Amino acid sequence: MSTAIVRIVSELRSIVAAWRREGLRIAVVPTMGALHEGHLSLVRAALIKADRVIVTLFVNPRQFNNAADLAAYPRTEHDDVAKLATVGAHILYAPNAADIYPQGFATTVSVGGVSEGLCGTFRPGHFDGVATVVTKLLLQSGADLAFFGEKDFQQLHVVRQLVRDLDIPIEIIAGPTVREADGLAMSSRNARLSLAERNRAPRLAEILVQTARQLSSGEPVQRALTDARLAILAAGFSDVEYLELRGDNDLAPIHTLDRPARLLVAAWLGETRLIDNVEVALPRAEALHQAAA
Ligand code: AMP
User: Fold this and answer.
1) Closest Cα partner for 141 from 13, 285, 254, 240?
2) Do 161 and 116 form a contact (C-beta atoms < 8 A)?
3) Residue 22 burial by CB count (10 A; 0-12/13-18/19+): exposed, middle or buried?
4) Integer Cα distance of 154 and 72 in angstroms
5) Cα 218 from Cα 220, distance rounded (Å)
């Protein structure tokens, strides 16, 4: 099957309108391209739940708080469309920046609460950029379902919040983080790692998993986080921006593991910033207590 490339919103809308007349269910998977298995897993999940799948490809300048990061972001549209055709996506919507942000564009979608802290602290303006473009892409696609990865866990919460607050009629579905065989979370930015860095990178996920296990077996939160931070630095990471335990459902800080939680990290390996997160299961006694309540 081939995947049609669409660049203009009016064209996208007329295709979607025709699908609607046929009563088809439509899904959208927003991406910034340089597609890997993480993205493709979302497309496959979308194809199971919907009759038609639109993948968007837009490297959104507004969500980059660092010009060098934007300039270095991989752009591989030709390969992306080939991968999408293999998986069976119906449309690749790849608009130009001037069409997404035409002259005179003056609106910003700014989500409070869940966008504060974590990446919100270290990437000023990032979530405003994400929220603004995601709002546009969801409205432009007019899809019934939208798929986002847990890899960007805070982003997933930001998107859920804006959809709820703005009454956008779309269901948000999360897909689990897809990892390399050695545990490193797949990311378009992994390609920037040197060979030596690439060999060290999986330690981040290993330390997260190990810390999650320690927390679940009752280790005090603060001690576990301090030890994990030291372990990440000892593994050769140059900086740990944050390493925090947050509520799985609301991203609120957690000091005692008494409800479902997520351990989230952002750390620098040389010039590359990596993020990752893992679920933290409740200690057995807590889980039994919650089940009984
Ligand atoms: P990006 O192209 O990095 O903006 O990501 C587009 C979508 O793919 C987002 O919803 C990401 O959370 C998701 N995604 C990126 N990497 C992964 C991964 N390793 N596993 C699952 N989803 C991912």
Assistant:
1) 13
2) no
3) exposed
4) 23
5) 6
Mean pLDDT, rounded, of the chain: 96
How far is Cα 114 from Cα 116, in angstroms, rounded to an integer? 5
Determine whether the shortest distance from the Cβ of 175 to ligand 1 is under 6 A.
yes
Q: Which atom of ligand 1 is nearest to the CA of 178?
A: 20
Instruction: Show the tokens assigned to 189.
Output: 């930015």
157 phi and psi, to 5 degrees? -65, -40
Please give the distance, rounded to the nearest whole angstrom, from the Cα atom of residue 46 to the centre of ligand 1. 14
Per-residue pLDDT, 139: 98
39 is catalytic: yes
pLDDT, average across residues 235-263: 97
Sheet with 261-269: list strands edge to edge: 239-247, 261-269, 272-280
Does ligand 1 lie within 6 Å of residue 5's CB atom? no
List, in sequence order, every residue forming a beta bridge with 265; answer none if it has no partner: 243, 276
Structure tokens at 86: 């293999």
pLDDT in tens, 80-120: 999 999 999 999 999 999 989 999 999 999 999 999 999 99
Instruction: Give alpha helix (H) positions in 77-182.
Output: 77-87, 97-100, 119-122, 126-141, 153-165
pLDDT value for 191:
94
> Which residues fall within 8 angstroms of residue 173, CB to CB, at 6 or more apart?
45, 46, 49, 145, 146, 147, 148
CA distance 209 to 228: 10
Tell me if 154 CB under 6 Å of ligand 1.
no
